[in-house]
Design the sequence.
């Protein structure tokens, strides 16, 4: 079974075979050495009533496993958090409080929590398992996401975050295409909501790698290390994710997280229309609005973002109707021209017959 992880230096998504577990290999992108983790939990282990069946990967949130909840006979995504996230009593208390808040969320586009508990000095979290693919996987396989589909996905995420913010004051802090999952029914799901704050309080940013938040998508204020963040930080991250969806490239690049964040704080990204000239003006306007460097210049509430997305969809639909109406009018004009031609031809024939008749009568 392949092991899935990210290079902590350049953030490339990597797959490695089982035989490389616990060893060091060179990243195929940046050539820096990375350690292939050996999972803390093996197949068949019972963690709080959840029996592990498959290791899905490793990330900032720790290990992720596919597990079966024996009591309910259902599959779940089981996250085993790093020990350092909950090593103090107050850390564990805060983590379980946040999980309880997450469990209360009831929204069709939010992956909800099922259960949480302590395990081997750390903690685990069981969440609904979504059988599907992430937007990141779609980008990697297809290059870009069509505008209409990108807006549909972004709208679903915005509505989920609007619900979380208005009802519980929750922000995500790590919005990115890898956290947008599309299931077999084409429903969009937001993953890892509510967990990033726990990670942020306990893990620090380093020069070569970043644990909390992905630098390509995080807001300038989050990159600066501002302690107080609100929904406007997530609004920027959704804009950056939308940028990646429609252009196929992240807004900023660099060989380290420090380089990416330095660019983010000092210069705007390349205009999306430069990368994809066929992008609509409306889409470019939306991305620009969401990704303003100063949070005061962005939409201030999720409701404004939702309206932006919906107006874009309505305008696209309106264009279709207008085009259809023009086609009908064009056909109608063509039909009128054909009728006029027929009348003229008939009149011409009548005149010719009359002329011939007159000529014949004169000859007699």
Sequence:
């Amino acid at each position: 079974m392949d092991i899935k992880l990210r290079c902590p230096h350049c953030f490339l998504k990597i797959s490695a075979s089982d035989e490389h577990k616990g060893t060091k290999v060179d990243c195929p992108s940046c050539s820096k050495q990375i350690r292939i983790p050996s999972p803390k939990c093996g197949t068949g282990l019972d963690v709080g009533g959840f029996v592990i069946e498959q290791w899905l990967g490793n990330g900032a949130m720790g290990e992720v496993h596919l597990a079966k909840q024996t009591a309910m006979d259902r599959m779940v995504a089981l996250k085993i958090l790093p020990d350092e996230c909950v090593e103090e009593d107050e850390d564990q208390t805060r983590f379980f409080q946040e999980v309880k808040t997450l469990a209360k969320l009831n929204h069709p586009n939010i992956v909800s929590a099922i259960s949480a508990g302590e395990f081997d000095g750390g903690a685990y979290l069981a969440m609904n398992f979504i059988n599907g693919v992430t937007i990141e996987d779609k980008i990697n396989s297809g290059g870009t996401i069509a505008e209409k589909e990108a807006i549909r996905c972004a709208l679903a995420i915005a509505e989920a975050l609007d619900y979380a913010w208005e009802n519980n004051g929750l922000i995500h802090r790590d919005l990115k295409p890898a956290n947008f999952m599309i299931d077999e029914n084409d429903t969009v799901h937001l993953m890892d909501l509510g967990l990033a704050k726990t990670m942020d309080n306990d893990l620090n940013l380093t020069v070569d790698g970043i644990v909390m938040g992905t630098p390509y998508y995080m807001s300038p204020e989050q990159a600066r290390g501002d302690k107080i963040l609100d929904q406007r930080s997530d609004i920027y991250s959704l804009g950056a994710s939308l940028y990646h969806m429609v252009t196929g490239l992240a807004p900023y690049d660099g060989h380290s997280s420090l380089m990416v964040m330095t660019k983010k704080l000092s210069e705007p990204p390349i205009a999306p229309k430069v990368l994809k000239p066929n992008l609509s003006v409306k889409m470019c306007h939306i991305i620009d609005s969401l990704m303003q460097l100063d949070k005061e210049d962005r939409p201030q509430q999720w409701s404004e973002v939702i309206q932006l997305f919906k107006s874009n969809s309505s305008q696209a639909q309106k264009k279709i109707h207008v085009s259809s109406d023009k086609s009908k009018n064009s056909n109608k004009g063509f039909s009128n021209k054909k009728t006029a031609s027929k009348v003229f031809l008939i009149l011409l024939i009548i005149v010719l017959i009359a002329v011939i008749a007159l000529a014949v009568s004169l000859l007699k």
Observations:
- The chain has a mean pLDDT of 79.
- The two ends are 106 Å apart (CA to CA).
- Residues 231 and 247 are 24 Å apart (CA to CA).
- The chain has ten helices and 13 strands.
